[in-house]
Write a structure and sequence with these properties.
Serine Threonine Protein Phosphatase 5, Tetratricopeptide repeat, 70% helix, mainly alpha, 703 residues
Length: 703
Amino acid sequence: QSAVNVPRDFEGCSTLRKYFGQLHYLQSRIPMGAEQEAAVPIAWTEIFSGKTVTHEDIKYEQACILYNLGALHSMLGAMDKRVSEECAAGAFTYLRDHFPHSYSVDMSHQILNLNINLMLGQAQECLLEKSMLDNRKSFLVARISAQVVDYYKEACRALENSETASLLGKIQKDWKKLVQMKIYYFAAVAHLHMGKQAEEQQKFGERVIYFQSALDKLNEAIKLAKGQPETVQEALRFTMDVIGGKYNSAKKDNDFIYHEAVPALDTLQSVKGAPLVKALPVNPTDPAVTGPDIFAKLVPMAAHEASSLYSEEKAKLLRDVMAKIEAKNEVLDQFMDSMQLDPETVDNLEMYSHIPPILMEKCAALSVRPDTVKNLVQSMQVLSGVFTDVEASLKEIRDLLEEDEAQERKLQELLGKVPAPQGSPPPPSPGLAEVSKECSKYMEVHEKASFTNTELHKAMNLHIGNLRLLSGPLEQVRAALPSPALTEDDKQVLQNLKRILGKVQEMRDQRMSLEQQLREMIQKDDITTSLVTTDRSEMKKLFEEQLKKYDQIKVYLEQNLAAQENVLKALTDANVKYAAVRKALAEVEHKWNTTVQTLVASYEAYEDLMKKSQEGKDFYTDLEGKAAKLLEKARAACQAAEANRQQILEKEMKKQPPPRPTAPKPALQKKPLELEAGGLDAGDLPPLGSLLLSELPEELRSL
């Protein structure tokens, strides 16, 4: 009911479109076509004859609704301001191309052609008026006007058809006269603007013939305009003033000033029309227009089967695209692996501009412990002092033992005993033997500890410098870290490589994005509703049409894949230039990392050094006490041994006969000694050292 009695506005157009769409959904599910089981009689009245026409075919209902949609659009267009180039031809075009023409005479091919071209011609008129108001170029205005002429010529041919003439009756003559008047009028407008273009190009002869032709055509239009409303007559008079003035001025200028030859009109290039208007499209399955499908739950089995076939077509398309993508990705991955270029680290210059966090952490820790280096140095000094004391004590013990050994050897030689083999000293006294044993043990321990102490000193000397650096200003720490010295050419090489690596990543990202878009499109692509409303014979065509929606994204993917070869070639060239820079950066980075690790190791070694230093102090303090006791013991033992040797020597002296008299030496007669048997007791002998050397046996002089 709403579709039969629509209001004369755009809401009425919307109602007709919705009803037309729902009829389309209905006829695809219920057999309501001609001679089908559920067909019902449908009656409409012809607009020209007034006769009622009835057909048992749902398509007749659709055709009548379409006709009325076109008619309503044309009425609204006539009432509207002439600023839009959209027109009512869409409904008539869809009706002509998709429905039989035998339903009624007002839906014949000629009548529909007439309607279509009348609508297009009037829409082109609107565009022409807008172009003239916008002062578009003369040649463009001429072409738009020429297209108006072409549309009206097509409409005139439809009007001259005998069937159309008999159907329309008197209306046919009036329409034909009006259309012919418009043909001449807009041809005049087209030639007026061609004359303007000739004027702009300073082709003054052409200007005259175009203006003359425009004047002739306008005169023909005026003849055909008899009986038209006053508004039309006024427009024609205004146009005559414009064209007549242009012609007279152009002819006068050429006759008296330019004297250019005026060519014949048929020798000039004809003006080709520019069709710039568009018919409002009709899509019976557009949910935005038709609203939701009332019969959506009625899906025939054939539609499910067709949907499965379409899904296979989509899967095939995806397989083909993915095969190409995977092949290119494999080549790209192998190439990048061989290059060993990581975009994140290829340019690590930023790393050298600041102190790494781990080093900052160590500097911060030392800043709250300002006596770190001082404590370590003092600990080392204490350790060195104790070490030196121990070494001095052990050396003195060793010297005492060696001296005692030497004295013992000489005593043995003096007493005439067989000298001990070279290198094997005479057996010491029990006291000295114990001292010697303990001394050897302490010396062995000292030797081992001395090596450890030396290594500890080396480690401390190594780490103290680093600890002083870490305790100092941050600028010094940063200055101590290596940094690359790159030339401007090196920097340019780096920038170029980074740019191309960025292109590689951009290509990857775009490829992944396009692939994801394609998958999502395929996932969401459900044309079951369209399949329901499509004839089986049209399925293949529908598949092809639906699959075209993927053409654009396939083109983008093809372009992406094709670009890979050029990108990799550019990357290869850039990498060749980067080789020398890469080597230099790698060396600097290695030094930088080594320096950072060394400084961190020095910080972490501090506690260990302090601990080992303390252990060393404790060890040597203990060893110093033992060495001091052993030194006292050695001195006492050496004194006892010396006293023992004195006793042995005195006994031996008593056993020896008196020496032969020798010539007196005046200088040595101050204290003559006579060693006569029984003259002195052994206890009365002076110390051995007080004997005159000349009075000692030769073998005792050195002792």
